[in-house]
Amino acid sequence: MRLQTALLITALILLSGCSLGKGSAPQPADTPAAAAPSVEQPASQPAQPVETAGAALPAPPVALPQGTPFPGLGRPVAEVFDFQVWQIDDFSRENYSVAGYSAVDYQGSAYAALLLAPLPELVDEENDEGMGQRLLFYRLNNGAATPIGREYESDTLTIDPIGWHDVNGDDLPDLPVQVHKAVDYWDSDYWLLFSLDEEGTLLNLLADFYALNSAPVTLQDMDNDLQPEVEVIIADWYNWDGLCPTCSPMGYKFYAFNPDKGVYEDASARLQSPNLERINAAQERVSATFGGPYQPQEVLGPAISLLLAYDFIGQRRQGWDEFLRLSDPANWTQIDPADLNQLETLREMLRRQFETNQPFAPEKTQDVPG
Asked: pTM of the prediction?
Protein backbone atom coordinates (compact mmCIF):
# COMPACT_ATOMS: atom_id res chain seq x y z
CA MET A 1 0.00 0.00 0.00
CA ARG A 2 1.27 3.46 -0.86
CA LEU A 3 2.34 5.58 2.11
CA GLN A 4 -0.20 8.21 3.11
CA THR A 5 2.01 11.27 3.37
CA ALA A 6 -0.50 13.24 5.39
CA LEU A 7 -0.16 10.75 8.25
CA LEU A 8 3.62 11.11 8.46
CA ILE A 9 3.75 14.38 10.42
CA THR A 10 6.43 14.99 13.03
CA ALA A 11 5.97 12.03 15.33
CA LEU A 12 7.02 8.93 17.14
CA ILE A 13 5.23 5.80 15.99
CA LEU A 14 5.61 2.84 18.32
CA LEU A 15 4.79 -0.65 17.11
CA SER A 16 2.55 -2.66 19.40
CA GLY A 17 4.34 -3.64 22.59
CA CYS A 18 7.51 -1.63 21.80
CA SER A 19 8.87 1.43 23.58
CA LEU A 20 11.73 3.39 22.09
CA GLY A 21 12.20 6.18 24.62
CA LYS A 22 13.98 6.61 27.93
CA GLY A 23 12.89 9.00 30.61
CA SER A 24 15.87 11.33 30.59
CA ALA A 25 19.35 11.93 29.30
CA PRO A 26 22.26 10.23 31.08
CA GLN A 27 24.28 12.13 33.61
CA PRO A 28 28.03 11.61 33.26
CA ALA A 29 29.73 10.44 36.40
CA ASP A 30 32.03 12.91 38.10
CA THR A 31 35.66 11.99 38.57
CA PRO A 32 35.75 9.31 41.20
CA ALA A 33 34.10 8.53 44.34
CA ALA A 34 33.94 9.31 48.01
CA ALA A 35 36.34 11.64 49.78
CA ALA A 36 38.83 10.35 52.35
CA PRO A 37 38.37 11.27 56.04
CA SER A 38 39.15 14.90 56.77
CA VAL A 39 42.57 15.66 58.23
CA GLU A 40 44.36 18.82 59.30
CA GLN A 41 45.09 20.98 56.29
CA PRO A 42 48.38 22.74 55.51
CA ALA A 43 48.60 26.50 55.46
CA SER A 44 48.12 26.84 51.71
CA GLN A 45 44.58 27.59 50.64
CA PRO A 46 42.83 26.34 47.51
CA ALA A 47 42.41 28.77 44.68
CA GLN A 48 38.86 29.75 43.85
CA PRO A 49 37.79 29.75 40.19
CA VAL A 50 36.81 33.13 38.84
CA GLU A 51 33.35 33.06 37.31
CA THR A 52 33.51 35.15 34.17
CA ALA A 53 30.68 37.43 33.11
CA GLY A 54 27.83 35.50 31.61
CA ALA A 55 28.66 32.19 33.31
CA ALA A 56 25.45 30.18 33.53
CA LEU A 57 24.16 29.42 37.03
CA PRO A 58 22.86 25.93 37.79
CA ALA A 59 19.29 25.57 36.62
CA PRO A 60 16.90 22.67 36.22
CA PRO A 61 16.58 21.27 32.71
CA VAL A 62 14.01 23.06 30.59
CA ALA A 63 11.44 21.15 28.56
CA LEU A 64 12.23 21.37 24.87
CA PRO A 65 9.62 22.20 22.21
CA GLN A 66 7.74 19.02 21.45
CA GLY A 67 6.60 17.60 18.16
CA THR A 68 3.09 16.40 17.45
CA PRO A 69 2.91 12.72 18.32
CA PHE A 70 0.13 10.60 16.91
CA PRO A 71 -0.94 7.03 17.68
CA GLY A 72 0.31 3.99 15.83
CA LEU A 73 -1.48 3.26 12.61
CA GLY A 74 -2.27 -0.31 13.58
CA ARG A 75 -0.94 -1.59 10.26
CA PRO A 76 2.05 -3.78 9.39
CA VAL A 77 5.27 -1.85 8.99
CA ALA A 78 5.54 -3.06 5.39
CA GLU A 79 2.35 -1.17 4.55
CA VAL A 80 3.23 1.97 6.50
CA PHE A 81 6.69 2.18 4.97
CA ASP A 82 5.79 0.93 1.47
CA PHE A 83 8.51 -1.69 1.93
CA GLN A 84 8.69 -4.45 -0.59
CA VAL A 85 8.16 -7.92 0.87
CA TRP A 86 11.76 -8.87 0.10
CA GLN A 87 13.04 -6.08 2.32
CA ILE A 88 11.15 -7.41 5.33
CA ASP A 89 12.27 -10.93 4.46
CA ASP A 90 15.88 -9.74 4.42
CA PHE A 91 15.56 -8.50 8.00
CA SER A 92 14.13 -11.85 9.05
CA ARG A 93 16.87 -13.81 7.29
CA GLU A 94 19.41 -11.70 9.16
CA ASN A 95 17.68 -12.72 12.43
CA TYR A 96 16.19 -9.27 13.09
CA SER A 97 12.66 -8.01 13.56
CA VAL A 98 11.25 -4.48 13.32
CA ALA A 99 11.10 -3.04 16.84
CA GLY A 100 9.78 0.41 15.99
CA TYR A 101 10.09 3.44 13.79
CA SER A 102 9.72 7.23 13.68
CA ALA A 103 8.84 9.18 10.54
CA VAL A 104 8.47 12.79 9.42
CA ASP A 105 6.99 14.39 6.29
CA TYR A 106 9.49 16.87 4.84
CA GLN A 107 9.60 18.61 1.46
CA GLY A 108 7.28 16.19 -0.29
CA SER A 109 8.93 13.01 0.97
CA ALA A 110 8.71 11.02 4.16
CA TYR A 111 11.87 10.24 6.11
CA ALA A 112 11.92 7.41 8.58
CA ALA A 113 14.21 5.89 11.18
CA LEU A 114 13.70 2.14 11.47
CA LEU A 115 14.85 0.31 14.59
CA LEU A 116 15.68 -3.39 14.26
CA ALA A 117 16.11 -5.72 17.22
CA PRO A 118 17.66 -9.21 17.20
CA LEU A 119 15.25 -12.08 17.58
CA PRO A 120 14.72 -12.89 21.28
CA GLU A 121 16.25 -16.34 21.03
CA LEU A 122 19.54 -14.75 19.96
CA VAL A 123 19.85 -12.50 23.02
CA ASP A 124 21.23 -13.69 26.35
CA GLU A 125 19.81 -11.01 28.66
CA GLU A 126 21.19 -12.63 31.82
CA ASN A 127 24.77 -12.33 30.57
CA ASP A 128 24.12 -9.23 28.44
CA GLU A 129 25.32 -11.00 25.33
CA GLY A 130 24.03 -11.31 21.79
CA MET A 131 23.61 -9.24 18.68
CA GLY A 132 23.13 -5.49 18.96
CA GLN A 133 20.27 -3.37 17.70
CA ARG A 134 20.42 -1.66 14.31
CA LEU A 135 19.20 1.77 13.19
CA LEU A 136 18.52 2.43 9.51
CA PHE A 137 17.14 5.46 7.67
CA TYR A 138 14.90 5.53 4.59
CA ARG A 139 13.43 8.09 2.23
CA LEU A 140 9.88 7.14 1.29
CA ASN A 141 8.75 8.61 -2.02
CA ASN A 142 6.44 7.45 -4.81
CA GLY A 143 5.88 4.09 -3.22
CA ALA A 144 9.58 3.26 -2.77
CA ALA A 145 11.63 2.96 0.44
CA THR A 146 15.20 3.99 -0.38
CA PRO A 147 17.98 3.57 2.22
CA ILE A 148 19.84 6.81 3.06
CA GLY A 149 22.85 7.48 5.24
CA ARG A 150 24.84 4.84 7.03
CA GLU A 151 23.63 2.10 9.35
CA TYR A 152 24.23 2.29 13.10
CA GLU A 153 24.60 -0.71 15.40
CA SER A 154 25.01 -0.88 19.16
CA ASP A 155 23.99 -2.81 22.26
CA THR A 156 20.99 -0.52 22.66
CA LEU A 157 19.65 2.31 20.48
CA THR A 158 16.92 4.49 21.96
CA ILE A 159 14.96 6.88 19.74
CA ASP A 160 13.84 10.10 21.44
CA PRO A 161 10.21 9.54 22.51
CA ILE A 162 9.22 12.90 21.00
CA GLY A 163 10.40 11.69 17.60
CA TRP A 164 11.39 14.06 14.81
CA HIS A 165 11.24 17.74 15.82
CA ASP A 166 13.30 20.92 15.53
CA VAL A 167 15.80 20.43 18.36
CA ASN A 168 18.18 23.34 17.77
CA GLY A 169 16.00 26.12 16.33
CA ASP A 170 17.14 25.99 12.70
CA ASP A 171 13.66 25.07 11.36
CA LEU A 172 14.88 21.64 10.19
CA PRO A 173 13.67 18.28 11.53
CA ASP A 174 16.03 16.54 13.97
CA LEU A 175 15.97 13.13 15.65
CA PRO A 176 17.95 12.56 18.87
CA VAL A 177 19.06 8.96 19.41
CA GLN A 178 20.70 7.59 22.54
CA VAL A 179 23.32 4.87 22.12
CA HIS A 180 24.53 2.42 24.74
CA LYS A 181 27.80 0.58 24.21
CA ALA A 182 29.34 -1.83 26.70
CA VAL A 183 32.89 -3.08 26.30
CA ASP A 184 35.48 -4.41 28.72
CA TYR A 185 36.81 -1.02 29.81
CA TRP A 186 34.07 1.45 28.83
CA ASP A 187 30.34 1.38 29.51
CA SER A 188 28.29 4.50 28.86
CA ASP A 189 25.44 6.20 27.03
CA TYR A 190 26.18 8.51 24.12
CA TRP A 191 24.07 10.65 21.81
CA LEU A 192 23.57 10.93 18.08
CA LEU A 193 21.62 13.86 16.64
CA PHE A 194 20.33 13.33 13.13
CA SER A 195 19.08 16.22 11.02
CA LEU A 196 17.78 16.75 7.50
CA ASP A 197 19.29 19.70 5.67
CA GLU A 198 17.42 21.82 3.13
CA GLU A 199 18.24 19.32 0.37
CA GLY A 200 16.97 16.38 2.42
CA THR A 201 20.46 15.01 3.15
CA LEU A 202 20.72 13.11 6.42
CA LEU A 203 23.43 14.46 8.77
CA ASN A 204 24.65 13.45 12.22
CA LEU A 205 25.34 16.82 13.85
CA LEU A 206 27.42 15.19 16.60
CA ALA A 207 29.62 13.09 14.32
CA ASP A 208 32.73 15.21 14.95
CA PHE A 209 32.59 14.46 18.67
CA TYR A 210 33.07 10.74 18.09
CA ALA A 211 36.85 10.92 17.94
CA LEU A 212 39.70 9.22 19.73
CA ASN A 213 38.82 9.26 23.43
CA SER A 214 35.76 11.52 23.21
CA ALA A 215 32.00 11.17 22.87
CA PRO A 216 28.85 13.26 23.50
CA VAL A 217 27.35 11.99 26.76
CA THR A 218 24.62 14.52 27.54
CA LEU A 219 22.13 16.42 25.41
CA GLN A 220 20.17 18.93 27.50
CA ASP A 221 19.30 22.60 27.80
CA MET A 222 21.81 24.18 30.19
CA ASP A 223 21.12 27.89 29.75
CA ASN A 224 17.32 28.02 29.45
CA ASP A 225 17.25 28.96 25.77
CA LEU A 226 15.04 25.96 24.88
CA GLN A 227 17.83 24.43 22.80
CA PRO A 228 19.96 21.58 24.13
CA GLU A 229 23.69 21.90 24.58
CA VAL A 230 26.03 18.94 24.16
CA GLU A 231 28.34 17.71 26.91
CA VAL A 232 31.37 15.88 25.50
CA ILE A 233 33.57 13.66 27.63
CA ILE A 234 37.33 13.92 27.05
CA ALA A 235 38.90 10.63 28.13
CA ASP A 236 42.50 11.02 26.99
CA TRP A 237 43.67 10.13 30.50
CA TYR A 238 41.44 7.08 30.91
CA ASN A 239 43.32 4.29 32.75
CA TRP A 240 46.52 6.33 32.48
CA ASP A 241 49.71 4.75 33.89
CA GLY A 242 47.93 2.17 36.00
CA LEU A 243 45.11 4.32 37.36
CA CYS A 244 41.96 2.30 37.93
CA PRO A 245 39.05 3.08 35.57
CA THR A 246 37.00 4.82 38.28
CA CYS A 247 40.10 6.77 39.40
CA SER A 248 40.96 8.02 35.92
CA PRO A 249 40.98 11.74 35.09
CA MET A 250 38.12 12.96 32.92
CA GLY A 251 37.46 16.25 31.20
CA TYR A 252 34.15 17.70 30.00
CA LYS A 253 33.51 20.29 27.32
CA PHE A 254 30.20 21.91 26.43
CA TYR A 255 29.03 22.86 22.95
CA ALA A 256 26.16 25.07 21.82
CA PHE A 257 24.55 25.10 18.38
CA ASN A 258 25.35 27.98 16.02
CA PRO A 259 22.39 28.18 13.61
CA ASP A 260 24.28 30.50 11.25
CA LYS A 261 26.99 27.89 10.71
CA GLY A 262 24.87 24.80 11.34
CA VAL A 263 27.42 23.34 13.77
CA TYR A 264 28.00 22.96 17.50
CA GLU A 265 30.74 25.24 18.87
CA ASP A 266 32.72 25.13 22.12
CA ALA A 267 30.85 27.09 24.81
CA SER A 268 32.70 25.73 27.86
CA ALA A 269 33.93 29.18 28.91
CA ARG A 270 30.32 30.41 29.02
CA LEU A 271 28.69 27.30 30.47
CA GLN A 272 31.02 27.06 33.47
CA SER A 273 28.81 25.72 36.25
CA PRO A 274 29.40 21.96 35.81
CA ASN A 275 33.18 22.37 35.63
CA LEU A 276 33.19 24.76 38.59
CA GLU A 277 31.46 22.05 40.62
CA ARG A 278 34.04 19.50 39.50
CA ILE A 279 36.87 21.85 40.48
CA ASN A 280 35.47 22.26 43.99
CA ALA A 281 34.95 18.51 44.38
CA ALA A 282 38.51 17.78 43.23
CA GLN A 283 39.98 20.32 45.67
CA GLU A 284 38.10 18.75 48.56
CA ARG A 285 39.04 15.22 47.64
CA VAL A 286 42.75 15.81 47.17
CA SER A 287 43.06 18.10 50.20
CA ALA A 288 41.50 15.39 52.36
CA THR A 289 44.60 13.24 51.79
CA PHE A 290 47.07 15.90 53.01
CA GLY A 291 49.03 15.07 56.16
CA GLY A 292 48.91 11.33 55.56
CA PRO A 293 50.57 8.84 53.21
CA TYR A 294 50.40 9.64 49.51
CA GLN A 295 47.73 7.66 47.61
CA PRO A 296 48.11 8.04 43.83
CA GLN A 297 44.71 6.50 43.11
CA GLU A 298 43.09 9.18 45.31
CA VAL A 299 45.15 12.14 44.10
CA LEU A 300 46.07 11.94 40.43
CA GLY A 301 42.60 11.51 38.93
CA PRO A 302 40.92 14.48 40.61
CA ALA A 303 44.04 16.68 40.36
CA ILE A 304 44.34 16.22 36.59
CA SER A 305 40.56 16.52 36.17
CA LEU A 306 40.75 19.87 37.98
CA LEU A 307 43.51 21.02 35.64
CA LEU A 308 41.39 20.11 32.61
CA ALA A 309 38.29 21.81 34.01
CA TYR A 310 40.16 25.06 34.61
CA ASP A 311 41.63 24.91 31.11
CA PHE A 312 38.25 24.33 29.46
CA ILE A 313 36.61 27.31 31.19
CA GLY A 314 39.44 29.60 30.08
CA GLN A 315 41.39 29.83 33.37
CA ARG A 316 44.51 27.89 32.40
CA ARG A 317 46.97 29.92 34.51
CA GLN A 318 44.90 29.61 37.66
CA GLY A 319 44.37 25.92 37.03
CA TRP A 320 48.09 25.31 36.65
CA ASP A 321 48.87 27.08 39.93
CA GLU A 322 46.20 25.07 41.73
CA PHE A 323 47.42 21.79 40.23
CA LEU A 324 50.97 22.53 41.45
CA ARG A 325 49.62 23.21 44.94
CA LEU A 326 47.56 20.04 45.07
CA SER A 327 50.32 17.82 43.66
CA ASP A 328 53.21 19.16 45.78
CA PRO A 329 54.96 16.11 47.35
CA ALA A 330 55.35 18.11 50.59
CA ASN A 331 51.59 17.68 51.17
CA TRP A 332 52.09 14.09 52.39
CA THR A 333 54.05 12.57 55.24
CA GLN A 334 55.05 9.46 53.34
CA ILE A 335 55.45 8.69 49.64
CA ASP A 336 56.80 5.58 47.93
CA PRO A 337 59.87 6.27 45.74
CA ALA A 338 58.17 4.81 42.66
CA ASP A 339 55.08 6.95 43.28
CA LEU A 340 57.27 10.02 43.79
CA ASN A 341 59.00 9.38 40.47
CA GLN A 342 55.63 9.04 38.72
CA LEU A 343 54.36 12.27 40.28
CA GLU A 344 57.47 14.29 39.44
CA THR A 345 57.51 12.94 35.88
CA LEU A 346 53.86 13.90 35.47
CA ARG A 347 54.41 17.41 36.82
CA GLU A 348 57.34 17.96 34.47
CA MET A 349 55.40 16.70 31.43
CA LEU A 350 52.46 18.97 32.23
CA ARG A 351 54.81 21.89 32.88
CA ARG A 352 56.17 21.58 29.33
CA GLN A 353 52.64 21.51 27.95
CA PHE A 354 51.64 24.54 30.02
CA GLU A 355 54.67 26.59 28.99
CA THR A 356 54.20 25.78 25.29
CA ASN A 357 50.40 26.30 25.45
CA GLN A 358 49.71 22.72 24.40
CA PRO A 359 46.64 20.71 25.45
CA PHE A 360 47.09 18.85 28.71
CA ALA A 361 47.29 15.26 27.50
CA PRO A 362 49.31 12.11 28.22
CA GLU A 363 52.09 11.17 25.89
CA LYS A 364 50.17 8.02 24.99
CA THR A 365 46.37 7.76 24.92
CA GLN A 366 43.94 4.89 25.29
CA ASP A 367 41.37 4.19 22.57
CA VAL A 368 37.88 4.84 23.92
CA PRO A 369 35.04 3.83 21.57
CA GLY A 370 32.71 6.48 20.19
From this structure: 0.74
Which helix (H) or strand (E) element contains residue 90?
A: helix 85-93
For 180, the domain range is 1-18+66-205
Starting at the edge strand found earlier in the chain, the sheet holding 96-106 runs 96-106, 109-118, 133-141, 144-154
User: E strands within 184-262?
Assistant: 186-196, 202-204, 214-220, 229-234, 251-258
Tell me how far apart the alpha carbons of residues 19 and 12 are, in angstroms, rounded to a whole number.
Answer: 10
Is there a domain that residue 292 lies in?
no
> What tens digit of pLDDT does each residue of 152-200 get?
988 888 888 778 888 888 888 999 998 887 655 556 788 999 999 888 8
Per 3-state DSSP, the chain is made up of helix, strand and coil in percentages (nearest 5) of: 25, 30, 45
CA 130 to chain centre: 24
Q: Would residue 61 count as lying in a domain?
A: no
| Count: domains in the chain | 1
Is the residue at 198 inside a domain? Answer: yes
